[in-house]
Amino acid sequence: MGGRDSPSIRRSDSGSPGIANRLLSVGLRLGIVLLLTGSALSCTQQSGPDDRSCARAVNKSMYAVRSLLNGPSSAIVSVLGDSTGNSPREWPALWAQTIANSRRVDMHLWDRGLERYGSFVYRYGRRGPSLTIWNGSIPGASSQVIEERLSELMPVRPSFVVVSVGHDENTWDRGEGFRRLVESVLARLGSSVPVVALLQNAALEPAAARSKSNIANVKVQANAMCLPVVDVFTGFEQSDLASLITDDGDGVHPNDAGSRLWADIFASVMKGESRGPS
After folding, report:
1. Strands 116-124, 104-111: parallel, antiparallel or unpaired by DSSP?
2. What's phi and psi for 160, nearest 5 deg?
3. How much is the mean pLDDT over the chain?
4. 134: number of Cβ within 10 Å
5. Is the distance from CB of 122 to CB of 107 less than 8 angstroms?
6. What is the rounded distance in angstroms from the CA atom of residue 87 to the CA atom of residue 66?
7. CB of 142 within 8 A of CB of 165?
8. For the chain, does the N or the C end have fewer beta carbons within 10 angstroms?
9. What is the largest CA-CA distance in the chain?
């Protein structure tokens, strides 16, 4: 796969995978809480902006993101994350499939073996403006690892960035790694490029307490930086969690149903269907 000079294309003409219809109704019955929490929490830094200016910043960023996704022009999305998104069966690819009826979506996927983006390009849909996803999700990567590899993970300038970290963070760091990563992204791209923070899924034992603490720290830091926050964690926590996590002993990785729930929550926020900033 890595020896080819030009990318190959894998097409998917369906708007969602075969399990989508079955799982969507399950997700609704689970009482998913879809929150865009950036405006709901106060900005905690004493020298930072007040609640109203923070809410305006969140609104501005989400308006820009939704305009990019719903507009007539092409767009580029950079996903910075870990193993919860590093597969064509996980949330970035499933989200891509949900918008394939109105856009042609190409996804470049980080190859953990080659330590670079793979030669295959996953294509969803054939019509509409192009959306290119550079899915730089590195299995096992903390914010520090991602920060060190930004030039590789963002080979082109994105229209907006999604940061999905938490499970692999150092608990003692208290979210500082996430903050430094976002600061590096903004230093590289400028403040005009929106950055969206994603609160990852709730986990089972043995990772439950560690992941919950790390994700809470990410939430605090994201809110202090006035970033839009997509709260996937609450959707999992208020669901039948055991039915959404792979039985691999780690307690972290969503199974097919969990990945579909994650993608549905993210898609709903991107469309503006969930409760957004007041």
Report:
1. antiparallel
2. -155, 165
3. 86
4. 22
5. yes
6. 25
7. yes
8. C
9. 52
Distance CA 147, CA 119 (A): 23
**The tokens 């930004």 sit on which residue?**
150
The CA distance from 119 to 114, in Å, is: 10
Instruction: Please tell me the predicted confidence (pLDDT) of residue 49.
Output: 53
CA distance 32 to 169: 26
pLDDT in tens, 164-203: 999 999 888 889 999 999 999 999 999 999 999 999 999 9
Distances in Å between the alpha carbon of 77 and those of 40, 130, 193, 252?
Answer: 25, 11, 10, 25
pTM of the model: 0.84
Say which residues have a Cβ less than 8 Å from residue 255's Cβ, sequence separation at least 6.
Answer: 244, 245, 246, 247
Enumerate residues 6+ apart whose C-beta is below 8 A from 32.
Answer: 235, 238, 239, 261, 264, 265
